[in-house]
Structure formats: C-alpha cells, structure tokens
C-alpha cells in the first residue's frame, strides 16, 4: 500500500473514532493563578529558574488534580502562569525550553530528554497523563538561528511566548506562538506568520490563542469564522481597563459576538489590576470570577456544550445595523460634548431625564438609545457615547463603539474615566448603532464590575436590550465593534 494511502486511511480511522466517542457536553475548567514572581530582575541560573517554575507548577498541579476530581475534561491555566512577566530578553532565557512541533508524536512524561532538557514540559505532560485531563499552559519557546537567516536576532535565537496543550495521555497535541505581542513583551519575538492552531477531541474542535490576540483578526477571527472551532482556549495576563476592557466584560462579550465557547484563564495580581477569568459561551458566562480584593487564585469548573453551533438554541445571526438605520435620528435634539476614554475622544450626550430617546453620532456611526431609569440617583450622571476611529498609541486598530456610560462624577469632564460603582438601575434599555462591521460584541457591566447573565438579549436586528430591567446598578451598556479592515499595519511586526 502506498504511504499516502496509509496516511489517508489512518486519518479516516482517527476521525471515525472521534465521531464514535463524541460527547454532546464536556466539563471545562480554568484556573486563575496568583503567580509567584521572581525575586530578582537579574538573570538567574537554569536551576534557580526551574525552582521558581516548580513552585508555580506545584500550585497549578493542585488545581489540575482538583479539576480532574470534579470530572473536568480540560483545564486552562494563565499566560505567564509559570514564571511571571518581569523580564528582559536576556533574563528570561533560563526559563525557556525547546518546544517541538506536535507532529513529532511526543509524550514528555515518558520520554523527557528526547528533545533536550525539558523539565517543564515533562511535568505538565505528567500532570495531564496522571490525571487523565487535557492541560493547557503558557511557557517560553526558544529556537536557534544563524546568519543564514537574515531575520535572526543578534543573540542567535528566536524566543516565543508559547501555549502548549497536552492530552489525557500526556502527549503534546498543540503548540501556539503568540502573534500579537503586547508592547511591553520585548523579551519575545513575533512569529514570522500567524499560526492557526486547532485540534480535535471527542468533545469538539478546539483553537488556541493568547491574551492580546483576541483583539485582532489573526488568529482570533480566522479560527472561529473560517476554521469553525467550537471552543477557544485562552491563557491571558489581562490588566483590567474600565469602562470597556475589563477581562470578564470583554471576554464574555467576545464569546457571545463570535458564537463560540471561550475558556479564559487570567493571572491574579491586584497590584497590576489582573483578575477576571471565566467559562464563556455564546449565551453568556457559564461561570466567571472577578475579585480585586483577595490575593488568592480560583478554580472554576462548568459543563458546556461541546458543539454549540449544533444546539437548537444557538443564537441567530445578527444584522448589527438593521434597526439603527431604520429609526428616527434624534441627534439634533440632544446637545453633545467631547469626552476622553483614555486617549480616545468620544462624542457624548447627557441623559438628563429618567426616560427618553437619544441619538449620538461620530463620523459614520450613529448610536441610538431608548431607556427608562427605575431609580435615578441625583449624584450620578449617565451619557450616551459614540466612537468611530483608530484606538491605540503604538499599535492602532479601528473601533466602533456605542455606549450607555456612567460618569465618574457629576462633572461632565469625568465622563469616560473609570468608575467601579453605581447606584442607578434601569427599568429598560435598548441600544443599537449603524455599524459597518459584522464583528460587534455586546457588553453589560454592573456595579462592582459584575456581569449580567440572562438579563439582556441581542435581537437579530442589532438591538442590545434588557429583558426585565436590571437587577443591579449599571456601569456600562456597550456595543463594541471591531472594523479589522481599517486597522493600520502593525508598526513593530512590519520590520520582520
């Protein structure tokens, strides 16, 4: 038999086995980890680096065992969860391992030295194998290069922020190099091309990417819209930024907007405003955690649909501009003023009455709001805001945002500044916008940075509206649009 025929038959057999073992639901876990950080900013020996990583893996292994005890099929741990993030290119080197392509069919737990020294991969592999659970972790990869490669760094190696996945036998089944590095990640290199990493399990098709990647088309949108993954694995070290980019707020909205499961594991560091993990679905959070007071981590476990697109109650497709382009424009009836959300200049209009209709426009985007407050606090001001433009200082990408927003104080100049608490509840709200993108993410955030599962819905004509009023005071109600085609070229990656 020809080798190609053998490979085809093997692939068909593997697919048949997966179909026979297919599960309708699965139990997923994420662990928000309070990372033990290095005690020095200077370069340490490989043994000292491993000692720190083992301390973190001791904690992660406890979470893996507890997740397996609760029946979890897979657990996701955070970005930077094994060694932290305070590094230069030189000082992170002792923490890196050579991570091979998963096609090599390798179980580090049983063959740890096949690709050189790899104690971290060995231990992660054994966690998965010994507990019969998929383990997802974030570590650093190193790849040597030389002068024959014109893009080879001067120190003779590439260094990558890397996610790895080990299956229930401890085999390495996925490796992903982060494509969209945050501006402070100077210790790592950008991959030359984006990687679209997927793998099949008896409980669905999985994709994986890391933290800042979620804001861009590649690889995030490609994995979901083109490669049709059912669940995204998402290690992150997310610093919360009000009013629109707290971890649980945006990650839940992204899962709803993309119609996919998102298993989000954040690091926990209150000094860095890092908290917020969850098991998010196309219908909202199955379970989430946000706590800026404690210094402890948290394990979350929940049962999810393995293939949400096949569910009879899968959300219908949304035309995000349908309603907003058909209703009366009230913009001439409302006074507007500019306000800054960080560096972005929004157009705001104050909601002066307890109920009404409002329209605010900026460039091509008009935002419409119908609302009724159930208890308007005299010490609070709410505005309707619109933003249509490029966001970011170094990396510039295009946002379209419609938002009902609580101002930090009654001084209108504070509108757009972070506010964590509120007192005003709404009997109803309906928000829509004339978006010219299909990628819009619906956010509702309550006082104390809490989500509102089951209390709002997105209609097929693009309206984000409350079901039966709000059970808690409102911080923001937002439609967060991304117009990927208008993004500027990445200024750092363009040098590669």
Notable characteristics:
single chain, 496 residues, alpha+beta, Nitrilase/N-carbamoyl-D-aminoacid amidohydrolase, seven-stranded antiparallel beta sheet, six-stranded mixed beta sheet, 5 helices, 24 strands, 16% helix
Major sheet attributes: 7 strands, antiparallel
User: What proportion of the residues is helical, as a percent range?
Assistant: 10-25%
Question: So what's the CATH class of the largest domain?
Answer: Alpha Beta
State the CATH architecture of the largest domain: 4-Layer Sandwich
Structural class based on helices, strands and sheet pairing: alpha+beta
CATH topology-level fold name of the largest domain = Nitrilase/N-carbamoyl-D-aminoacid amidohydrolase
Give a short overview:
By secondary structure, the protein is α+β, with helices and mostly antiparallel strands. The protein has helices at residues 3-20, 46-69, 119-131, 217-226, 247-258; strands spanning 25-32, 74-76, 134-144, 157-166, 172-177, 198-201, 204-208, 231-236, 261-266, 277-281, 284-289, 298-305, 337-341, 344-350, 355-362, 365-375, 382-391, 397-406, 425-433, 440-446, 450-451, 456-458, 464-466, 474-482.
Explain this structure to me?
The chain is α+β, with helices and mostly antiparallel strands and 496 residues long. The protein folds into two domains: 296 residues, Nitrilase/N-carbamoyl-D-aminoacid amidohydrolase, CATH 3.60.110.10; 166 residues, no CATH class. The chain has five helices and 24 strands. The strands form four sheets. Strands 13-14-17-18-24-20-21 form a seven-stranded antiparallel sheet. It has a six-stranded mixed sheet with strand order 5-4-3-2-1-12. A six-stranded mixed sheet has the order 6-7-8-9-10-11, with helices on one face. α2 runs parallel beside α3. The radius of gyration is 23 Å and the shape is globular. The model has no long low-confidence stretch (mean pLDDT 94).
């Amino acid at each position: 038999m020809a080798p190609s025929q053998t490979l085809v038959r093997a692939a068909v057999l593997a697919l048949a086995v997966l179909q026979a073992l297919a599960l309708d639901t699965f139990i997923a876990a994420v662990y928000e980890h309070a990372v033990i950080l290095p005690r020095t900013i200077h370069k340490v020996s490989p043994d000292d680096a491993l000692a720190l990583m083992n301390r973190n893996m001791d904690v992660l292994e406890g979470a893996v065992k507890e997740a397996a005890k609760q029946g979890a099929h897979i657990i996701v741990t955070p970005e930077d969860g094994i060694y932290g993030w305070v590094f230069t290119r030189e000082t992170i080197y002792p923490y890196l391992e050579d991570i091979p392509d998963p096609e090599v069919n390798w179980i580090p737990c049983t063959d740890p030295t096949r690709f050189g020294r790899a104690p971290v991969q060995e231990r992660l592999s054994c966690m998965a194998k010994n507990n019969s659970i998929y383990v997802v972790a974030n570590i650093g990869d190193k790849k040597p290069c030389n002068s024959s490669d014109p893009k080879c760094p001067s120190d003779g190696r590439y260094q990558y922020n890397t996610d790895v996945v080990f299956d229930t036998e401890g085999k390495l089944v996925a490796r992903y190099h982060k494509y969209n590095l945050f501006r402070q990640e100077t210790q790592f290199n950008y991959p030359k091309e984006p990687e679209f990493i997927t793998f099949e399990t008896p409980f669905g098709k999985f994709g994986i990417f890391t933290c800042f990647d979620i804001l861009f088309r590649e690889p995030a949108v490609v994995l979901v819209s083109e490669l049709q993954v059912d669940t995204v694995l998402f290690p992150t070290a997310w610093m919360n930024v009000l009013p629109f980019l707290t971890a649980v707020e945006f990650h839940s909205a992204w899962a709803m907007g993309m119609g996919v499961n998102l298993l989000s594991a954040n690091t926990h560091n209150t000094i860095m405003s890092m908290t917020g993990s969850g098991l998010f679905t196309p219908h909202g959070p199955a379970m989430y955690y946000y706590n800026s007071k404690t210094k402890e981590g948290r394990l979350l476990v929940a049962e999810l649909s393995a293939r949400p697109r096949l569910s009879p109650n899968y959300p219908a497709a949304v035309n995000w501009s349908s309603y907003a382009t058909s209703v009366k424009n009230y913009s001439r009836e409302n006074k507007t003023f500019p306000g800054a959300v960080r560096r972005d200049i929004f157009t705001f209009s104050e909601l002066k009455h307890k109920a009404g209709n409002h329209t605010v426009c900026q460039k091509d985007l008009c935002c419409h709001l119908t609302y009724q407050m159930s208890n308007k606090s005299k010490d609070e001001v709410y505005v309707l805001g619109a933003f249509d433009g490029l966001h970011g200082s170094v990396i510039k990408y295009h946002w379209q945002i419609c938002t009902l927003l609580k101002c930090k104080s009654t001084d209108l100049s504070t509108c757009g500044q972070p506010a964590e608490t509120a007192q005003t509840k709404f009997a109803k709200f309906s928000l829509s916008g004339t978006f010219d993108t299909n990628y819009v993410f619906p956010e509702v955030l309550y006082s104390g940075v809490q989500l509102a599962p089951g209390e709002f819905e997105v209609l097929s004509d693009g309206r984000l509206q409350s079901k039966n009023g709000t059970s808690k005071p409102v911080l923001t109600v937002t439609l967060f649009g991304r117009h990927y085609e208008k993004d500027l070229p990445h200024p750092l990656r363009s040098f590669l």
